[in-house]
Amino acid sequence: MGRTDSNDDRSGRDDSGPTQPPGAAVHQMTPAALRHIAGVDALPRLLNAPELAESMKRHYPAALRGQGTAGSVRVDVSIDEQGQVSDITVLPAPTLQAHGLVGWRLDADSPLEAATPASTAQFGDAAKAALGTARFSPAQLDGKPVPFTLRMTVRFSDPDASGTT
Q1: 61 occurs within a structural domain
Q2: Residue 54, in any domain of the structure
Q3: 90 is in which domain, residue-wise?
Q4: Does some domain include residue 74?
Q5: Is residue 14 over pLDDT 60?
Q6: If pLDDT is split at 50, 70 and 90, which confidence band does 11 have?
């Protein structure tokens, strides 16, 4: 029969929006909370996701292609009032200070995946080059576009990996 997933309901309607992992809570932030936390009424939204995905493939480090190397890097992306990227700053990899987590490790399957110093060194320039092609809707404050800086983790996977394990 037809495709069934967590977004289907009994009416046959398929809400093709983003899906949440099983058991994940969906939280709506109130406008007041957003203003309190981020200082804006509306956050920037990525407008050209397909182009950015292609740019990330193009800018994947040439020396790592075909090796199956994945990596991530944290960046601050400054977005101007027109939604254009005005600056990209690669951030140092965070240090993990775990108290009482004996024998615990951070790896690619961890929900707490973070940028590492090796990833930052290998993928920092690639992230800057790829994100230079990103286009956003501007952040809004009182109905007017305002500059905003997004902090994000950019994750790269090898576009030339064979796909076999």
Answers
A1: yes
A2: yes
A3: 43-96+113-156
A4: yes
A5: no
A6: very low
Q: Which amino acid appears at position 162 of this protein?
A: S
Residue 36 confidence (pLDDT): 80
pLDDT at 95: 63
How many other CB atoms sit within 10 Å of the CB of residue 98? 10
Residue 146 lies in a domain: yes
Mapped onto helix, strand or coil, the DSSP state of residue 117 is helix
Summarize pLDDT for 17-68 with one digit per residue, the tens: 444 445 555 567 787 888 888 889 989 999 999 999 999 999 999 999 998 8
Q: Are 72 and 114 in contact (CB under 8 A)?
A: yes
CB 7 within 8 A of CB 19: yes
* 84: β partners: 135
Neighbours of 72 (CB within 10 A): 20
State the total domains in the chain.
Answer: 1
- Domain CATH for 135: 3.30.2420
Q: Which letter, b or e, does each residue of 77-92 get, where b requires 16 or more Cβ atoms within 10 Å of its Cβ?
A: bebbeebebeebebee
* Token digits of residue 127: 């992230």
The answer, yes or no, to whether residue 125 has pLDDT greater than 90, is: yes
Give the type of residue at 65: R
Q: In whole angstroms, what is the distance from residue 94 CA to residue 115 CA? A: 7
Measured CA to CA, the distance from residue 39 to residue 72 in angstroms comes to: 27
